[in-house]
Amino acid sequence: MRIQSIEAIPLVRNLQDVFQGGTYKITSRNTIVTRVVLDNGIVGETFGGDEDQYQFEVCRIVNDIYRPLLLGEDVRDVEKNWERMWLTRVDLNNRGIHTLDLAKHCVETQAIAAVDNACWDALGKALNQPVYKLLGGYRDHVPVLAIGGYVMQGKTLADLEREVEYYKEHGIFGMKLKVGYLSVDEDIERAHVARKAGGPRFHLCVDANQAWTVAEAMQFARGVRDLNLAWLEEPVRWYDQIEGNARVRTLGIPVNAGQGEISRHGCRDLIVRGAVDILNVDVTIAAGVTEWRRIAAMAHSFGVSMAHHEEPQIALHLLAAVPNGLHVEIFPNYQRDPMWYDLPVQQPVIRDGLMYAPDGPGFGMPLRQDTIDKWRAR
Ligand SMILES: [Mg+2]
To answer: How far is CA 264 from CA 3, 118, 223, in A?
Structure first.
């Protein structure tokens, strides 16, 4: 079970529409396919991330730095292999102080994630077990949420209503409404429209993507206090994640944050300083399955639940594996996430609002080579 080769392949696909969130807009779907080949012929392969700016840099670190570091290592030695990548100092030839301190580290953690996640797929295949079983096997299905409610050109409140109805008709458990781009009052109105269309049982949450000051987040929270929102996601701006989120929590709506964290250390601080009810740290950004399971165990000790930012192909296994796992999220819109529909040979089964973990070994989601060839970035 020794690692014979590792390869990261960047994929890029421009989207037809522009999808506007609180602090960004999406115009392309990027992802990285990582392949780990073992000396017994087993191939671990998965995809992850939607990195635009640093995609090639992430692949370069995998192919030029972590590949030679791990060749010949036993894929079962997950902690040892992870620690070797984590402790390696990576030179990104970057002298800009701000990106040296901030962006550089998330490039490294994404590269570690790419390798670590593919190694878990290989490990599952080598042991003929699904990853969610290897990680704990708490259940075999997870409720599925739609990421939607984007602000789009010409989109009306009636369109938002129809969007919610579409999710309900397609067996989706609930929805994440994007807020933070328009005024707080407009977002309060949009949340009321979504709740009315979804009905009282629809699992409705909102995601501001760090768009608001604490005052704006609290204004929103007061305006939706009767809507029974499942959570406010990343309500406050990037610089105030700890004290700011802790203050918003006092209004009683659960706060979900952590997709901007890249290590268990950042998640630890959010937890112990009372900034979150739910962590949605992303396994493709924060250094892979090996780091995620440590974070999930730590969170469980503090009564904090685990959600996950996108990436259902891996998140499904993680959230099914642990007792404090919540929902997996998808874009039930081909235009927003064509890779989810075109890259796996088959998507997991969704039934009655639940997504079922595939029974096959590893992540149980073989990838289509023709899709990889078609969208490979050069
Ligand atoms: Mg989010």
So the answer is: 26, 20, 33
CA 189 – ligand 1 centroid, Å: 20
Q: How far, in Å, is the centroid of ligand 1 from the Cα of 341?
A: 21
Confidence tier at 94 by pLDDT (50, 70, 90): low
The environment of the single-atom ion ligand 1, i.e. residues with CB closer than 5 A, is 207, 233
Instruction: Render pLDDT for 7-27 as a digit per residue (tens, 0 to 9).
Output: 999 999 999 988 888 888 889
Q: Give CA–CA dist 337/26, Å, rounded.
A: 10
Q: How far is the CA of 329 from the centre of ligand 1 (A)?
A: 10
Identify the CATH assignment for 133-356 out of 1.10.150.120, 3.20.20.120, 3.40.47.40, 3.40.50.1010: 3.20.20.120
Instruction: Note the pTM of the prediction, 2 decimals.
Output: 0.95
Residues 105-125 have pLDDT tens digits of 899 999 999 999 999 999 999
Level-2 CATH architecture, domain 3-128+369-375: 2-Layer Sandwich (3.30)
- Residue 329, helix vs strand vs coil: strand
21 Cα: distance to centroid of ligand 1 (angstroms): 9
Question: Which of the 8 DSSP states describes residue 73?
Answer: -
